[in-house]
Design a protein that fits this description.
The chain is α/β, with parallel strands linked by helices and 721 residues long. It has a domain of 137 residues. 45% of the residues lie in helices and 15% in strands. The chain is built from 24 helices and 18 strands. Helix 10 packs antiparallel against helix 11. It starts with a helix and ends with a helix. Bound molecules: adenosine-5'-triphosphate. Belongs to the TRAFAC class myosin-kinesin ATPase superfamily. Kinesin family. KIN-13 subfamily.
């Protein structure tokens, strides 16, 4: 309301109104058009006044933008509302009962906020907005929705946009074309969820449901070099996408134009056209080529050759030669040739269309179950300019890429379909990487990752120009595919023009989790050059390996003397070494050695002591476990009416534990007895020896003279004692 009053307020009553009208300001709302050059004309000179006016103008600009954005949304909603079926089926059926309006459309601002920024509006603020919307226009279509959204990239018109190259001077341009809803989609009641804005922005309104079952619209904004709405003709698309490439080719360069998108999104319509009266990019390009050649190359004529082939599941088939199998081979100079490819000379647009229609017929033999018109292959049309001596004087590729949807979307996800899908996905990923590496002027182009990029290798090196047209369907059922297409295109263009800033700006951007996910999906190559991507994340320790290193995690390795919990073996230690070196400290660690084995080898007293210590620890452990078992068992039996099976199982385990404890005790007493036996044996052996010595001494005395015998006897007595 305040805004309305403010907007309608005339300035004519102001004493200095003539100054305002002289700079085109008739109403307060016009103040937003003021620039700083107008300030002196208005008599504003002091810095304080200038600052105040500047702030006012900025505030008005923000209000204007918000109003425009709201109008866009309301227009969009009005369009949706006009689709009666959708309104009833989609909007109402998804809402079980009418709820009061609680949220409004997103608060827009075209101020660049960084890549993929999420904007959320508080519920209170949104409620206020929707209330004013309702009073103003009374077109509530989605009554219950919150608003939030994503921005993908910066508007190219923004002063902060990374790439401010002039259109046409760019080596890579990425455009989006939205097709209208088809009759079938309209009949099915599909809603148009895509808004093409201002020539370079496209918004996808994704219908979502919150955990509290609240309906809301999530808006995704994407910025590209060009955005074509449903009203755009092939001619217009051609002028702003392929035409600069054709000019580049006519100047002897190489150019490639890709049509990318979901099956049925309009790739073939864009490339081939819908009828002879509405030609596509192929025909329009050739028309311009002939027009150019007829005026400029009259003395040394250039010839136009076309070849047309497809790549299906990594194999090449010639569409102008009954789908003959072709092979791409690299020669000694690392130039890729397609062996056996047939090229046909054309001398007019009609002859080109004739050739292409022949090839298209061949191509449609490889249909899939997604859509009767779809194809799961990439179609590549090559137009070459050759001199009379067959030297190439320019080359252009038109690539109608296979549908970007996943193989799982096919009606029959059999093995063949899955392989097709995997192949397509791989080639599209490789294509993205190659285009990015072309733009970043990297020394390495990963063109060998797929047959498509291998064949197009020439297009990714040198002075090539590339244009990608991402075709999108507007229907709400295709929202996910549309978003995938736009995200792919966004990834292709996102680092464009930052060849010199590799790892700079991007590296400073706060990465979002989604971006990271998609980064992780990216293969090496181009990605690895950026600062953020070049660093591989710290490797997570593998649990399995840890176990292997740290030994078994059985209770016997955790509990030590005194009942304290011990860690497993420290890193870099080996079993046995630590145990013998540090004695009783590592009691818990030593338990991996079988107890009986240690007792069996107990020859030294020290080891025997250790063994006894271990046995004591083990016994303590078993006792503790037995106690625990019995406590658990008692609890189980007290708290729950256990089943007979459960009781028996508990009893069995408890008995097993007791047996273990008993056996440990037995082992301990057995060890003691063994030790005593050993000692007794030693004592016995000593006594025998003494007895033998005495006998020997007595016998010797009988044969020796008395003097010698007395001396020997005294020394022997000493030794025996
Ligand atoms: N810009 C457009 N204006 C009007 N109709 C269009 C437009 N784009 C596409 N269509 C129509 O949409 C339908 C599907 O288009 P198209 O066959 O070109 O899709 P596609 O992406 O090439 O699919 P596939 O991958 O199966 O070849 C066709 O009937 C076509 O006429």
């Amino acid at each position: 309301m305040t805004l309305c009053l403010y907007e309608s307020h005339p300035l004519t009553s102001h004493p200095n109104s003539h100054l305002f009208t002289s700079v085109g300001v008739h109403r307060a709302a016009h103040l937003s058009g003021l620039t700083m050059e107008d300030y002196p004309i208005l008599g504003i000179r002091s810095m304080e006044d200038r600052t105040r006016l500047f702030n006012l103008v900025q505030m008005l600009k923000t209000i204007d933008l918000e109003t425009n954005a709201k109008q866009d949304i309301m227009e969009e909603l009005s369009i949706n509302n006009s689709h009666a079926r959708f309104s009833t089926r989609f909007a109402l059926s998804r809402r079980p009962k009418p709820r009061p309006a609680t949220a409004a459309s997103r608060k827009f601002s075209d101020q660049p906020v960084g890549r993929k920024d999420t904007k959320e509006v508080s519920r209170k603020e949104m409620s206020t907005n929707i209330a004013s919307e309702h009073t103003a226009k009374a077109t509530p279509v989605y009554e219950s929705k919150t608003a939030a959204g994503y921005n993908y990239g910066l508007p190219l018109s923004s002063p902060l946009a990374p790439n401010k190259k002039q259109p046409g001077a760019q080596r890579i341009s990425v455009c989006v074309r939205k097709r209208p809803l088809t009759c079938t989609e309209r009949r099915a009641g599909e809603a148009d969820v895509v808004t093409a804005l201002s020539g370079e922005c496209v918004i996808v309104h994704e219908s979502k449901e919150a955990v509290d079952l609240t309906e809301y619209i999530l808006q995704h904004r994407f910025y590209f070099d060009q955005v074509f709405g449903e009203e755009s003709s092939n001619e217009e698309v051609y002028r702003r996408t392929a035409y600069p490439l054709v000019q580049h080719m006519l100047n002897g360069g190489k150019a490639t134009c890709f049509a990318y998108g979901q099956t049925g999104a309009g790739k073939t319509h864009t490339m081939l056209g819908s009828s002879p009266g509405r030609p596509g990019l192929y025909a329009l390009a050739v028309r311009d080529i002939f027009a150019h050649l007829s005026t400029t190359h009259t003395r040394s004529p250039l010839l136009v050759y076309v070849s047309f082939f497809e790549i299906y599941c990594g194999q090449l088939y010639d569409l102008l030669d009954h789908r003959k199998r072709l092979f791409a081979r690299e020669d000694g100079q690392k130039v890729v040739h397609i062996a056996g490819l047939r090229d046909v000379r054309v001398d007019s647009v009609s002859s080109l269309l004739e050739v292409i229609s022949q090839g298209t017929e061949e191509r449609t033999q490889g249909m899939s179950g997604v859509n009767p018109l779809s194809s799961r292959s990439h179609a590549l049309l090559q137009i070459q300019l050759r001199r009379l001596n067959q030297q190439i004087a320019g080359r252009m590729w038109f690539v109608d890429l296979a549908g970007s949807e996943r193989a799982s979307d096919t009606k029959e996800p059999d093995r063949q379909s899955r392989m097709e899908g995997a192949e397509i996905n791989q080639s599209l990923l490789a294509l993205k990487e190659c285009i990015r590496s072309l733009d970043q002027e990297q020394s390495h182009t990963p063109f060998r990752q797929s047959k498509l990029t291998q064949v197009l290798k020439d297009s990714f090196v040198g002075d090539s120009m590339t244009c990608m047209i991402a075709n999108i369907s507007p229907g709400h059922l295709a929202t996910e595919h549309t978003l995938n297409t736009l995200r792919y295109a966004d990834r292709v263009k996102e680092l464009r023009g930052q060849g010199g800033l590799r790892g700079g700006r991007r590296g400073k951007t706060i990465p979002s989790p989604k971006r990271n996910l998609s980064n992780s999906n990216s293969s090496s190559g181009a990605n690895s050059s950026t600062a953020t991507r070049g660093k591989s994340p710290p490797k997570k320790p593998k649990l399995g390996r840890q176990r292997e290193v740290f030994g078994p995690s059985t209770p016997t390795s955790r509990v030590a003397t005194g009942g304290s919990i011990l860690c497993s073996t420290p890193k870099n230690s080996r079993w046995g070494e630590e145990t013998s070196a540090k004695g009783g400290k590592e009691i818990g660690l030593e338990q991996i050695t079988p107890i009986r084995g240690m007792l069996g080898t107990a020859e030294k007293g020290e080891k025997r002591e250790k063994a006894c210590g271990r046995v004591a620890a083990d016994e303590q452990l078993h006792l503790w476990e037995a106690q625990r078992e019995s406590v658990f068992y008692r609890r189980e039996t007290a708290n729950q009416p256990s089943t007979l099976h459960g009781v028996r199982e508990g009893e069995r385990r408890s008995i097993e534990r007791r047996i273990q404890v008993e056996s440990s005790r037995d082992t301990y007493s057995e060890a003691e007895r063994q030790r005593e036996r050993d000692l007794q044996k030693v004592d016995g052996r000593d006594k025998d020896r003494e007895r033998h010595l005495r006998q020997y001494h007595q016998q010797l005395q009988q044969f020796m003279p008395s003097s010698a015998s007395s001396a020997f006897s005294s020394s022997n007595q000493a030794s025996l004692s």
